[in-house]
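Researcher: For the annotation table, I need C-alpha cells for Arabinosyltransferase domain-containing protein. Please keep the output clean. Sequence:
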Amino acid sequence: MLSPPRSALRHADAGTRSDSRRARLVLAVGLLTALAALAFPFAPVRQPEITYSWTPADGAAVALPLMPYQPVQLTATISCTAARSAGLLLSTVPPRPDPTALPLDGLVLVGTPAGVQVTSAGLDLGTVALPPGDCTLSLGSNAAATVVALDGTPVLNHLGDVRPDVAGVFTEAPTADARLALSLTADTRFSTTPSPLKIALAVLCLLGLATLFALLRAADRTLPPVRLLPRGWWRPRPVDAVVTTLLAVWWVVGSGTVDDGYIAGIVRSRGDNGFVGNVYRWLNAPEAPFSWFSEPYHWWSLISAATPWMRLPSALLGLLCWFLVSRLLLPRLGRAGRLRGTPWIAALAFGTWFVPLDLGLRPEPWVAVGTVLALLGVERAVATWRVLPLAVALTVAGATTALTPGGLMAVAPVLAAAVPLLRGLRARTDLHMPGAWRAAPLVAALLAAAASALLLMAADQGAAALAEAVRVRGRIGGGRPWYEEFERYALLLAPDDVQGAIGRRAAVLVTLLAVAGVTWVLAGRQHSGVAAGPARRLLVTLGLSAVALMVSPTKWTQHFGALTGLGTAVLTLGLVVFGRRALTALRDPVTARQRRTAGLAGAAVVCGLVLAGQNMWPFVSGWYTPTFSTVPPLVGTVPIATIVLAVGGVVVALLLARSVWRQSTYRDAELLYRDARLAPAVPVAVVLVAVLALQVLSLARIAVRQHGYTPAADALATAQGDPCGLQSVLQVEIDPAAGVLAVDAQPAAAQPTRPTTVDAGGTTLPGVAVAGAGQSPWFALDDRQRAGALPVVVTVSGVPRAGDLLDAEFARGTEVLATLPLTGPGLAPDGAPTDRRLIVPAGADAVRLTVAAAVDGTAAASLPRAPVLTPMIQVLPRGTRAILDWPVAFVFPCLTPEPLPPGTAGLPQWRVAPPADDPSAAITYTPGLGGPFAGSRLLVTQRRMPTYLRDDPTRDGVQLYRWEPVEPLRTLTPTVRVRDAGDLPDPGHLRVPQLIESS
C-alpha cells in the first residue's frame, strides 16, 4: 500500500491545548450529529386517517378499490329483518366481475334459509342463525380478529387476520329499514410526511455535519498544504470535445434501458401519491430505503416529462463521471495514467462502458459517480493524511448506498484502503483524546458522516413503515438470492438476449481481462509506470464492487453500469500497460515476451466472446435494428468470433514456437525485445472501437432513415414543440366493425365457410369458423391497402389446433397472386383476440379467407377489414389520465399516470399496455404480486382498441384498452384527518392474497 512517510506529519506529540479543545468539540459535534441521524428514522411522522362510510343510499354498487387491499379495520351492520331475505346482503368484491380478471377474496354476507353465511378473505367463517324478531347483526374485522355479533353478543369469533379484500361495496338487499351500513379505515401507513420533530432532527444533523466538516478542515490546515485539484484541470482538451460529442449524440439517438418506463411511472406518480411508491407491484410499498434519486427525477419531470428531457440527467452524470476519471483518478495511478495518449484510451474505455449501460432513468450512473467520488476522497485521505476527505468519502458512500442496494459498492474504497487509512488516523494525534478513548473524536466524526445517509433512506417514512415495506417485498419476492449471482454472468453470455448484447459483453469481459493483466503486472517487478498502491486499491475496489452487486435482488446485466467509473479506469490501465510503448520500455525481454503472448491469448478468447454477441436493444430501440445487427457479426456465413479466435490461436502458437526456437539457440540475456507490433492492447482496442461504432452508428442510421418512432425522432419532435413521444405517431382503430371490407362481385365460393362472430376485444365482428373446409367470398381491397399504406387486418380468436390451416388469398381478378398464413407463431397462447396484419402483394385487388381444419374446431377469424384510424392524440388528449403499464410509460409523457391516492387505487378509463407478446405488465393486475390495480381491474371489462404505428402499420407497438365498468358504479367521499402515526390503530402486517403468511 502506498502511504505518505511519517515525516510528512508535523504532530510529534499528543497535540496542543487548542488541539485538545478541537478534539473534544469534534467528539461532541460528531456524537450529536450521529445521534440525530440514528434517531431520524424513529422520529414520529404525520399520517392521514381516511375513513369511508357507506349505506344503501350511496348506491347498490360502489367502487372502492383499496390499496393495500385490506382496510385497517372494518365494521358492517344489518338488521335481522333485512338479513332474512335470501341473496347477497353485502359484498366487498363485485358479485359478477370480469371473468378475465384475477379474483380477490372479500367479505361476503349471504342470506340463506339457515341464516347469514359469512365469508371473509376466502375463509368460510360460518353461518349465523337469526333469532325471531328484530335484532342487529354486526361484524368487526381488524388484524387481530374478526367477530360477528348479534345485538352486541359475539356469535362467531375468528382470531387472526382474515380482513377482507375490498374492491367496492355491493348489495342486493332491500333498502327500506335495512339498517345496512359499512365503515372502514383505509391503510395509509406509507402516505406519511415528516413531523416537526423529524424535520428538526434532519436540520440538526445537517448543521452538525456542516460544523463537523468545518472543524475537520481547520484541523487539516495544520498539515502541509496541498492542491485540491491538479494544475490546469479546467482546461478543455480535444479528447473532452470527443467525449462530449459522443454523449450528446448518444443522448439523442441512443437506447434507454428496459426499466425506464418502470421508473418514469414511479417518479411521475410521486406528486399525486404523496410518496415514492412502487406503483406497479408490491402493494405500492415505498421504494425506500433505496429511492432518493427518484425525488430529483420527480422535480425534473415537473418541468417536462418529454423523453429527451428525462434522459438528460444521465448524460450529464456521464460527463461528470468522465471528468472525475480523466482529470482526477487516472493521474493518481502513476505515470501510466499521465501519458499523452492515455486520455484517448480512457475515452474509448469510457464509451465502451457508458453507451450500452448508463443512458436512461436507472440509478447506475448515479452509483458510478458516487463510487468514483468516494474513491477519490479515500485516495486523497491516504495521500495527505487528512480526515476531511475521508469524512466526505463516507458521506458520499452513504448517499450512494441509499440509491439502490448495489450502491453498497461505494463503501468498497474504504475497505480497500483500510490499512493506510488506519495508519493515517492513528498518526493524527491532534484529533486524539487522552486515555483509552483517544480515538473517540475520529470515530464519532466518521460515524456521523456515514450515518447521515439515514436522512435520505427515511426522508418521509417511519422505521415501522420501512420495515414493513422491506418485509412485503421479500414476502412477494421477484428477485434472486445472493448465491445465484452467477446468473448475471450467465445472462451476459446468453445468445439472442438483450442481457448479453455485444456492448455489455465488451465492457465487462474486456475489463475482466484488464483486471487479470494489471494484477499480473503489479505482481511482477516491472510495473510499467503504474503506482502500485493506488492501482492495487483500485483493483480491490472493483472486485469488492462486483461482490456488492450480489445484494441486488435481480441479476440483470444492466447493473454492471454502476461500475462505469471504476471499469473505465481499470480498462484504461490495462490497455496502457499492454500497449506498444509499455512493452517496448520493459528492460527484461523475457517478461515482455510473456506479457505479449499471454495478453494475445487472453485477447483472442475475450474478443471472440464479445463478437459472439448481438447488437440488441430493448423495446422501441430494437424495432429498426439493421439486418447486420440482428445476428452476431459475420464474414459471409462464418462468425467473426470464430475467425478471431482461430487467428488469435494461430498467432499465439507461432509466438510460442518462435520463443522456444530462440531460447534453444540463445541465452535469454541476449534476446532483446524490440518488436511490439503485436501488443495485445492493439487488437483489443480495434474490437472496442468496432463495437462502439456498431452501437452508435446503427442507431444513428435508423434515426435518420426511419419515419416511424425512434428516440432521435422523438427528440426532434420535442424540439419542434411536440413532446408527446410515441403517442404522436400512433393511430387508433376505434371501431373495428367500421372497416370490414365489402364483398367483391366475383363468383361465390364452391364450398363456403361456416359463418360466426368474433370478439375482437370488446367489439363483435362477423367472421368465419376455423372448422371444416371452405372459402369465404372475395372482398374488394381499399385503395390505401392496394397502395401499401394500410394492411389487411384479420382478428383471430381462440387457439387453432395443430394442422388447422387458415390462409388469406390475394388475387387480381380471378388470378390468385399470393397465399399468406394467418395461423402459426404470434397468436396469443390463451386464445385472446390477435390481429394479423398483412401487407397486400403488388397488383392484388381482392382478398378472401380459406379454411382447412377439423370439423369441431373452436377458433374463429374475423372477415378482413381496412382499419379506420384516428390519431391517438385525439382519442386521448394531452393530460388524459390512464394506467401506463411499465414497459411503455416512458414514451407517453403527455398522458398522466393514474394516481394511487392514499389508501386506494383509482378507477381509470384507459390503459396503455405493451405489445400483446409482452406479458410483463400483468404484475400490476395480479393480486399475488401485490398489483396496485388488481382491485380496479375486477370492476371493469377491457375493450381493446388496436393501434397502428405511422409508416409501420404492421407492427404491434402498443395496446390500448378502454376500461368500462361491469355495472354503473358510484364513488364515496372519505373523511380525512391527519394524525401522528403512533395515534392510529395498529394496522398489522400487509397481507398478500394467495400467499400463506408465516405465523
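Researcher: And a one-line annotation?
Model: Residues 736-867 form a domain with the Jelly Rolls fold (CATH 2.60.120.940).
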